[in-house]
């Protein structure tokens, strides 16, 4: 498995405040990877380090096997809030892309603009948030990068615009086969398009894996209240909560759980992510409300 | 990158260009007025002592016409241009990208930050040099009879609106705008600071930089008090100063002071029986008394023949500053920005 992005002890500090602290992860190439975590986890910093907009304070980062520099034709980036030039028209943005990128795919760009219904003569400053995001995605995609990084591209969009954007992204991945890393603090945005998921909390990877594997190996166990240490080999406790009479556990297990004293439920992706985000083993009780929807 | 730079730059560039074209048009239309008046008044082709009078007549004749209006407007424009270029071309160049977040879009294209800024600096600085150079060149040619007649082109006010110096001020002001925008990251703040810096520079140049560059010549001549001179004195203490206008037509007089035989500036005290309101004998008595004081006039001046030498020297200093500041901007955008 080749890597799209490797970080090793990666740290970015602004004065005393650290935006990313000692982050180590490995993102495989050839996937649509969702990077999910609460606000302030360091997702945005990680992506900006990956496209060379920021320089790391310490540690190492490699993107497609090289140190990232801004201006690389290999890496495309759609920044948070999808900035565009307000005074330039949609067509001007495509001309900019054509002038600034040797690998520019004009046919792809024009097809996408027509597909999402953007008027080429419209000033970008007059576009809606959803249209702006589509324009930014088009410019980034028509560059034909090997790796496309998207930083919370749908965070500011309404549900319909969000669906249209993700739809467009899915079409692109199907056609172009580029690796994609997309961050969000909402799982719902990611589960439609991602086949690989990384949960990042406070610069640490809590869980990483293919979405299908994650769904298959996580279970919710509900039973009478008991001590939780007796889970057995090959099982890891992700989250626990207890009432007077009942215990609820989220467990990762490769083998199916056959135990009549537990009621075993499947979890959807959002449950799994929330279980990891809401806390590690042992201190999950205090934050259990956050974990249960 | 050149297309992108031009696309973002064309509106302010065309606005400034229109203004310059209007002025150049005005100078072109009044060109014949200046040369004809110079001929009619006999200034063109004058010989010897007659020239001084002819020059006066020529300058008098120019006063009511459009030519003098355009002359003043063009000088004003050459002083205004650096501030305009710094504020409206330089300051927003990077600051607006940082403010609106669009730097994240352009830095994600396949063009390095260094090249991005080099092209922007070259296009903007080149346009500033071209605009200022064109206006200054045309004005210098246009005003040749006027400068000859008035012998005033070494005057600090006129000097910076002739020759190559305006090019230096325009390019430096542009880069000052870019650098402050880069450091402050706010368009409006950068505009205000740029204005402040450019105006201070324009004020500091004639008082501090130019005398230092020009290396004025100092002469001391005995005062005879048979020409024009001015006196100011306090009748109670007898403290008095004498001001004599040195006859240095065509030169730039940096300073002129009346000194005593010891070399110190003459401040009195005056003999109140011969000078001042209570003295008898009037102005002649005071004049005779001053003549007995063994006073001299110390003049520090830059000869008019040094005009072009000084022009190139000041231009060189401004261009050197422009280059240093540009290199700083490049280093900053590659190493320190975000």
Describe this structure in words.
The complex is a heterodimer of chains A (293) and B (338). Chain A is built from nine helices and 13 strands. By secondary structure, chain A is of the alpha/beta class. Chain A has two domains: 3-202, P-loop containing nucleotide triphosphate hydrolases (Rossmann fold, 3-Layer(aba) Sandwich); 215-291, no CATH class. In chain A, helix 4 (129-142) packs parallel to helix 5. The longest helix of chain A has 18 residues, at 159-176. Chain A is elongated and about 65 Å long. Mean pLDDT of chain A is 87; it is low at 281-293. With 338 residues, chain B is mainly alpha-helical. Chain B folds into two domains: 2-215 and 305-336; 224-294, no CATH class. Chain B has eleven helices and five strands; from the N terminus they run αααααααααββββαβα. In chain B, strand 2 (230-233) and strand 3 form a beta hairpin. In chain B, helix 3 packs antiparallel against helix 5. Chain B starts with a helix and ends with a helix. In chain B, 35% of the residues are buried. The mean pLDDT of chain B is 90. Classes of the chains: A alpha/beta (293), B mainly alpha (338). The A-B interface holds A 48, 51-54, 69-73, 75-79, 81, 83-88, 92, 95-97, 99-103, 136, 139-140, 143 and B 1, 3-4, 7-8, 11, 100-102, 104-113, 115-116, 338.
């Amino acid at each position: 498995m080749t890597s799209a992005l490797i970080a090793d002890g990666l740290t970015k500090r602004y004065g005393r405040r650290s935006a990313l602290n000692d982050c180590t992860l490995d993102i495989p190439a050839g996937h649509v990877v969702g990077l999910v975590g609460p606000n302030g986890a360091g997702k945005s910093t990680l992506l900006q380090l990956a496209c060379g907009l920021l320089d790391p304070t310490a540690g190492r980062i490699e993107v497609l096997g090289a140190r990232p520099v801004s201006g690389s034709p290999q890496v495309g980036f759609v920044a948070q809030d999808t900035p565009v030039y307000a005074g330039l028209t949609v067509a001007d943005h495509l001309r900019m892309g054509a002038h600034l990128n040797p690998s520019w795919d004009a046919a792809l760009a024009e097809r996408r603009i027509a597909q999402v219904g953007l008027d080429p003569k419209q000033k970008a400053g007059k576009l809606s948030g959803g249209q702006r995001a589509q324009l930014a995605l088009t410019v980034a995609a028509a560059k034909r990068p090997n790796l496309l990084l998207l930083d919370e591209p749908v965070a500011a969009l309404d549900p319909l615009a969000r669906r249209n954007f993700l739809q467009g992204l899915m079409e692109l991945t199907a056609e172009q086969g580029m690796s994609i890393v997309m961050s969000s603090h909402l799982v719902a945005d990611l589960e439609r398009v991602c086949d690989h998921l990384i949960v990042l909390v406070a610069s640490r990877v809590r869980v990483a894996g293919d979405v299908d594997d994650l769904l298959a190996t996580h279970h919710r166990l509900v039973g009478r209240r008991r001590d939780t240490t007796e889970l057995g080999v090959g099982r890891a406790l992700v989250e626990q909560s207890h009432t007077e009479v009942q215990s609820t556990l989220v467990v990762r297990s490769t083998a199916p759980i056959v135990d009549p004293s537990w009621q075993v439920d499947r979890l959807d992706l959002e449950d799994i992510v929330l279980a990891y985000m809401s806390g590690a083993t042992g201190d999950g009780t205090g934050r259990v409300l956050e974990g249960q929807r | 990158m050149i297309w992108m730079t031009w696309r973002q730059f064309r509106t302010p560039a065309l606005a400034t260009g229109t203004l310059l074209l209007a002025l150049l048009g005005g100078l072109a239309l009044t060109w014949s007025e200046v040369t004809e008046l110079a001929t009619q008044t006999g200034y063109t082709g004058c010989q010897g002592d007659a020239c001084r009078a002819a020059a006066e007549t020529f300058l008098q004749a120019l006063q009511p016409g459009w030519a003098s209006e355009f002359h003043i407007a063009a000088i004003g424009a050459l002083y205004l241009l650096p501030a305009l270029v710094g504020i409206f071309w330089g300051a927003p160049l990077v600051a607006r990208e940082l403010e609106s977040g669009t730097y994240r879009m352009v830095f994600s294209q396949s063009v390095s930050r260094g090249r991005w800024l080099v092209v922007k600096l070259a296009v903007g600085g080149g346009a500033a040099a071209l605009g200022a150079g064109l206006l200054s060149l045309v004005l210098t040619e246009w005003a040749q009879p006027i400068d000859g007649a008035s012998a005033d082109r070494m005057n600090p006010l006129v000097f910076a609106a002739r020759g190559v110096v305006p090019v230096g001020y325009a390019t430096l002001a542009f880069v000052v705008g870019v650098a402050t925008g880069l450091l402050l990251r706010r368009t409006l703040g950068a505009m205000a600071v740029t204005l402040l810096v450019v105006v201070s520079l324009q004020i500091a140049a004639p008082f501090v930089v130019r005398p230092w560059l020009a290396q004025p010549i100092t002469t001391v001549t005995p005062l005879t008090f048979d020409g024009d001179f001015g006196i100011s004195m306090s009748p109670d203490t007898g403290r008095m100063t004498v001001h004599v206008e040195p006859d240095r037509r065509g030169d730039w007089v940096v300073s002129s002071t009346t000194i005593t035989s010891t070399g110190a500036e003459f401040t009195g005290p005056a003999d109140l029986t011969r000078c001042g309101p209570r003295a008898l004998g009037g102005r002649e008595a005071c004049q005779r008394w001053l003549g007995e004081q063994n006073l001299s006039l110390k003049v520090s001046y830059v000869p008019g023949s040094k005009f072009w030498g000084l022009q190139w020297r000041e231009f060189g200093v401004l261009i050197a500053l422009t280059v240093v500041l540009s290199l700083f901007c490049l280093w900053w955008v590659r190493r320190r920005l975000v």
